[in-house]
Design a protein that fits this description.
The complex is a heterodimer of chains A (259) and B (471). Chain A has 259 residues and is an alpha/beta fold. Chain A has seven helices and twelve strands. In chain A, helix 4 crosses helix 5. Chain B has a domain of 303 residues. Chain B is built from 13 helices and 27 strands. The chains are: A alpha/beta (259), B alpha/beta (471).
Chain lengths: 259, 471
C-alpha cells in the first residue's frame, strides 16, 4: 500500500470483444503489491470478461489497450505462461475434470508454475498445511477435480489451489456466489490468510456481502465495460444503499438481479 | 497458425510391438481351409475322436453361416479366408523354463517383458506363439492346492473328462460364424480349473503373439472356478505390423460355480492389420461374480461383446471396457448381460476414445427373463471424440420381460472441452499436458481396476506429443 510497492497489474484503456461483441469498452485499472481491489458491478457489466481476459482465455479478443503485468505486456501469452508468471484466477464456475484426482492435479499445476519437479515431501507438507487452514479433510485430495462438488466445495478448492500455487496476482471471480453464510465465512477467511505485502488481489463480486469479511483497500464500480467510479471501502457501502442504478445515469436499465 | 497438440495412442507401436523375427516352422499348413485341413490339425494333435467330430461339425457351421450383416460389413467382407494360414507350429518343444524356448521366440517374449512380469507378480504364465503354446509355468504352491492351469491342448490330453464335460457348453459351435471357425481349427489357449474354496491371489497370465504374415490364431480358453473359488486371469496380445491382414478369432468360456469369482482382464493391442473377432461368454451361478475388464487398443476391426449369463440367484456380472480407435481402426465392442434368475445384478461401463478417422461402437444387450425379479442393471457409455472426423455410435438393446426390475442406461458423447483445457492451463499446465490429463482422467475408471503394472503400461500407451507447427 505504500508508494514504493511495485505495480503488479496495469490495465490501460482495455477494449475486449467476445465473438464480435464489444464487452470491455476502455477499462483502466492498476493493482499494486499488497493491495486488495474489489470490482463491483451488475450482471453483464463485463466483470467475468475482465477475469478471463486477464488469464488469457482464447475466446476473448483484445481489440485495443494494454495489459501490463510487472511492467511487461502479457497479452500474447497463453494461460499457462501467465500462470507461470504468477497470475491466478479463481473461477466463478470451476470446471470438472473427471478421473483426475485433486492431488495429481495440484502436483501437475505446481510443477507447471515452477517449471520444475516439486519434491514429494515438500509438496505433501505444503498441501497438508493449506488443507488444515481451510478446514478441508485430507480425503478431499483423492476426489476428482470439481466432479460432483457442491458450490462450497468448488470454491474451497479454488482457494486451496491459490494457496498452494502462491501467485503474485490473484483474481477471484465471484468467489462468494452460491455460498451459504458459513461457507462464505470459511472461504473469506481463506482469502484473508492469503493477503500479503507481496501479493495483489482482485476481488470481482456482484454483492457487497463478501466485503463484510474481506476489507478491500479500493473499490471500483464497473458498469457497461468501464470503471465508472473508484474509491475506498466506503464506496461498497454506498453501493449497497443506492444500488447500481445510481451509478449509471447515462445507461439504460439492464437485467441486473437484486438479492 | 498455432501448434496443435494431439493425443497419440500407441505411437511407438512399431518399435515396441510391431517387430517380427524370422519365421521358422516345424509344420505349417497350406493357406486356406477345408475339411481335410481340419482333420489334419486334429491328427497332428492326436486328439480323441469326439474332438475331431466336434471340429468337423463346427466347420460345417462355419461354411453355412453367413457373415454378420452388421458392425463393419465392408471390413468383414474383405477378409481373405483363402490366404490365411490356419495352423503354424513353430517348435516341437514346449518350455517349462524360458531356457527351453527357442532363442528367437524367447527374445520376442523378452522384448515384450513377459518373463520379467512373471518374476515380479504373476502366479502362472502361458505364452502362445502362432498356433501353439511355447512356454508354460505355474507356481508350485498352486499345483499343491489342486489348481490346474494348462494350455488347452495339454488339458485335452491330461484332463479329458473335465474338458469334454465343459468344452463348448457356454458357447456352442454354431453360436456365430467366428465361434464356429474357432471351434473347427482351435489351437492353444488356456485351461484353468480352480478347486472349491481356493483363492488364487496373484493373477495367471496368457500372452498371445502372432509373428508370421497372414496368420490365423484361434486360441480356445476355458476357465472353471468351482464353488467359492477365486481367480484373476490376464491376457495380452500383440503382432508385427504387416501390409497384409491376419485373423485372430478366439473363443473364451468361463464358468463360475456358486459363490465363485472370476475376473478376466484383456489388454488387446494387436497391430492395425489384425482382424480381432472374438466370442467371450461366462456363466455365473448362484451368488457368483464374473467381471470382464476389456481394453481394446489395437487391431483393424474388433468385434467383441463379453457376456455374462446370470443363471443363479444373486449372481453378478460386470463388464468394464475401454476402447481406443485411431485412424483406420474400428472398435465395435460392448457387452451382454442375461438375467435369468432373481436378484441378479449387472453393471456395464464402456469408455471409448476415437481419434482421427477412428471409429468406436458400443453394442450391448441387457436381457431380463420373466421371473428374474429384483434384477438390477446399470449401463453407462461414455465416448470421447478427439477430432472432427472421429466417430462413435451407441447401440444399446434392452429386452426386459420382467416388471419388478431396476434398469438404468446413460450415454454421453463429448469432445475435450475448451473450458476444461482453459481451466487446466490457467493452473500452469501446457496445452499438451492438459489434454493428456483430461484423456487419462477419462479412462481412469478402467485403469484403476488394473494391476499396477498394467495401469502404468496403459497410461504410457496413451500419450501426447506436439505435432509440428504449420505456418
Amino acid at each position: 500500500m505504500t508508494k514504493e510497492s511495485p505495480t503488479l497489474l496495469d490495465v490501460q484503456d482495455l477494449h475486449v470483444s467476445v465473438e464480435g461483441k464489444e464487452i470491455l469498452k476502455g477499462l483502466t485499472l492498476a493493482v499494486k503489491a499488497g493491495e486488495v481491489h474489489a470490482i463491483m458491478g451488475p450482471n453483464g457489466s463485463g466483470k467475468s470478461t475482465l477475469s478471463f481476459c486477464l488469464m488469457g482465455h482464447p475466446k476473448y479478443q483484445v481489440t485495443s489497450g494494454r495489459i501490463l503485468y510487472k511492467g511487461e505486456d502479457i497479452m500474447a501469452l497463453s494461460p499457462d505462461e501467465r500462470a507461470k508468471k504468477g497470475i491466478f484466477l479463481a473461477f466463478q464456475y470451476p470446471t470438472a475434470i473427471p478421473g483426475v484426482t485433486i492431488i495429481n492435479f495440484l502436483r501437475a499445476a505446481l510443477r507447471g508454475v515452477r517449471g520444475a519437479e516439486v519434491p514429494v515431501k515438500e509438496f505433501r507438507q505444503t498441501v497438508k498445511a493449506q488443507l488444515k487452514a481451510l478446514g478441508v479433510p485430507d480425503a478431499f485430495m483423492n476426489r476428482y477435480v470439481n466432479d460432483g462438488f457442491s458450490g462450497g466445495e468448488k470454491k474451497r478448492l479454488e482457494i486451496l489451489q491459490m494457496a498452494v500455487l502462491a501467485p503474485s496476482l490473484a483474481v477471484l471471480d465471484e468467489t462468494d456466489s452460491g455460498l451459504d453464510i458459513d461457507a462464505l465465512k470459511t472461504v473469506a477467511a481463506g482469502i484473508n490468510m492469503q493477503r500479503s505485502p507481496s501479493r495483489g488481489i482482485l476481488l470481482i463480486t456482484h454483492y457487497q456481502r463478501l466485503l463484510n469479511y474481506i476489507k478491500p483497500d479500493f473499490v471500483h464500480v464497473m458498469v457497461d465495460g468501464r470503471v465508472v467510479r473508484s474509491g475506498g471501502a466506503e464506496l461498497a457501502l454506498e453501493l449497497e444503499s443506492k444500488g447500481y442504478e445510481g451509478f449509471r445515469p447515462a445507461i439504460e436499465p439492464v437485467e441486473a438481479e437484486k438479492s | 497458425m498455432t501448434t496443435k497438440p494431439q493425443v497419440n495412442i500407441n505411437d511407438d507401436y512399431e518399435k515396441l510391438y510391431g517387430f517380427h523375427v524370422e519365421e521358422k516352422s516345424v509344420f505349417k499348413a497350406e493357406p486356406g481351409l477345408d475339411a481335410e485341413k481340419v482333420k489334419q490339425i486334429s491328427g497332428m494333435k492326436e486328439e480323441p475322436a469326439w474332438m475331431l467330430k466336434n471340429r468337423l461339425r463346427a466347420f460345417e457351421h462355419f461354411e453355412r453361416k453367413p457373415m454378420p450383416v452388421w458392425a463393419n460389413t465392408e471390413l468383414l467382407n474383405s477378409i481373405k479366408f483363402d490366404s490365411i494360414f490356419y495352423y503354424l507350429k513353430s517348435t516341437e518343444k514346449k518350455g517349462e523354463t524360458w531356457e527351453d524356448v527357442p532363442s528367437e521366440i524367447k527374445e520376442t517374449f523378452d522384448r515384450l517383458g513377459i518373463p520379467e512380469a512373471e518374476r515380479k507378480f504373476l502366479a502362472g504364465v502361458s505364452a502362445q506363439y502362432e498356433s501353439e503354446t511355447v512356454y508354460h509355468s505355474m507356481r508350485e504352491d498352486l499345483t499343491k492346492q489342486g489348481v490346474i492351469f494348462l494350455d488347452m491342448d495339454t488339458a485335452l490330453k491330461e484332463q479329458p473328462e473335465i474338458v469334454r464335460r465343459y468344452f463348448g457348453t457356454v458357447i456352442p459351435s454354431g453360436d456365430n460364424k467366428f465361434a464356429a471357425l474357432n471351434t473347427s481349427v482351435w489351437s492353444g489357449g488356456s485351461f484353468i480349473y480352480v478347486p472349491k474354496g481356493v483363492k488364487v491371489e496373484m493373477p495367471l497370465q496368457a500372452y498371445f503373439r502372432i509373428n508370421a504374415k497372414n496368420m490365423g490364431q484361434f486360441e480356445r480358453t476355458l476357465i472353471i472356478a468351482d464353488e467359492g473359488a477365486q481367480v484373476t486371469y490376464i491376457e495380452g496380445c500383440t503382432a508385427p505390423t504387416y501390409s497384409s491382414d491376419s485373423l485372430h478369432s478366439a473363443v473364451v468360456e468361463l464358468i463360475a460355480m456358486p459363490h465363485a469369482k472370476i475376473r478376466y482382464v484383456t489388454i488387446q493391442n494387436w497391430s492395425k492389420n489384425v482382424y480381432n473377432l472374438v466370442t467371450k461368454r461366462a456363466v455365473a451361478h448362484e451368488d457368483a461374480t464374473v467381471e470382464w475388464l476389456d481394453g481394446n487398443l489395437g487391431s483393424k476391426l474388433t468385434m467383441k461383446y463379453p457376456g455374462v449369463y446370470l443363471m443363479g440367484r444373486g449372481a453378478r456380472g460386470e463388464v468394464l471396457s475401454v476402447a481406443f480407435a485411431g485412424s483406420d481402426q474400428h472398435q465395435d465392442a460392448g457387452a451382454k448381460m442375461i438375467h435369468a434368475a432373481p436378484d441378479t445384478h449387472s453393471v456395464i461401463t464402456s469408455k471409448s476414445i476415437s481419434k482421427g478417422t477412428g471409429r468406436t461402437t458400443y453394442r450391448g444387450l441387457v436381457k431380463v427373463y420373466p421371473g428374474a425379479v429384483n434384477s438390477k442393471s446399470t449401463v453407462r457409455c461414455d465416448a470421447l471424440l478427439l477430432n472432427e472426423e472421429s466417430r462413435s455410435d451407441t447401440y444399446p438393446t434392452m429386452e426386459i420381460d420382467e416388471k419388478r426390475v431396476q434398469i438404468g442406461h446413460e450415454a454421453t458423447v463429448s469432445k475435450i472441452g475448451d473450458e476444461q483445457l482453459f481451466y487446466a492451463m490457467s493452473r500452469g499446465l501446457k496445452e499438451v499436458e492438459a489434454m493428456n490429463m483430461i484423456v487419462n482422467g477419462f479412462i481412469e475408471p478402467f485403469v484403476k481396476e488394473l494391476p499396477l503394472e498394467y495401469a502404468v503400461e496403459l497410461n504410457r500407451l496413451v500419450q501426447l506429443e506436439m505435432e509440428g507447427a504449420v505456418g
